[in-house]
Amino acid sequence: MSKTILERLNSEDLRRSRSDKLLALYLERHLAELPFETARSIAAKVGVSPMTVGRFLRRAGFDGLEPLKQELRHARSNPAWQVKGEVDVLQADIREGKLLARLINQQIDNLRQVYEVTITPQWQACVDALIEASEVYVAAYQNIRGMADYMAAQLSYARPGVRYVDGLNGTYSEVLDGAVEGRLLFMIEVRRFASKALPLALEARKRGVKVVLLTDDFCSWAEEASDIALIIPGPHGPLWDGSATIMAVLDLLLSNTIVVLGAKVDQRVETLTRLQDIFGDFEKI
């Protein structure tokens, strides 16, 4: 969390009027939720006008809400696999059971926020896109690429035409080439952001491929680079970045998609099971 932002919000200059105090207190207590807010939503919750929110943010040194979100992202930024904290303190905490308790509580808090995402129009639009697309290509990078492989493999049980793309051919031609009508790129991308992610998303949209982006609240280009953006809480805990929140979202998306497809999934699973029996992939029960 940015100490500088908290210091600004606590300054006397930003707490002169009643509306100032209400806004300062709201922002101070809800910094973690700001990636999901707009000036209009904050105004409605605090009981002021969106123009009042804008004036307050300008006095705080931000030309709107987006620059504040960007500063929060930078303040939280660190490498994905960096241990965040003093090692001796963390070791003491884990011996006493405190560290794992904190991690569990963080995951629970993140899952509560994920539920809020599942009731948004973007969520339903994502499920519809996964069902209606003629082809679905799933992409991710570096240490989260396995999640894309998992998503593609699981979704392929529910519908045909699903592929995981790793970009090793250097062109992403399977996504970008030929007739792209009805084609969907489902991209999973969280910090640290891969250099290929934004160019691929922009090129796909340019060529007429619909882009669904599952990302976290550190991403500053989600709206620019996607048709549908699902933004989930980024990791803010004492250790390296985990995958529990992303995996929960993927499983919820899969479950939602399967329920909507209904009997079509049963027919496809029967077909795949028969093929698995032919090629002997599993032990006989």
Automatic annotation (TrEMBL):
Gene3D superfamilies: Glucose-6-phosphate isomerase like protein, domain 1, Winged helix-like DNA-binding domain superfamily/Winged helix DNA-binding domain. SUPFAM superfamilies: Homeodomain-like, SIS domain. Residues 3-79 form the HTH rpiR-type domain. InterPro entries: Homeodomain-like_sf, HTH_RpiR, RpiR-like, SIS_dom_sf, WH-like_DNA-bd_sf. It comes from the Bacteria. PROSITE patterns: HTH_RPIR (PS51071). PANTHER family: GLUCOKINASE, RPIR-FAMILY TRANSCRIPTIONAL REGULATOR. This is MurR/RpiR family transcriptional regulator. It comes from Aquamicrobium soli. The lineage of its organism: Bacteria, Pseudomonadati, Pseudomonadota, Alphaproteobacteria, Hyphomicrobiales.
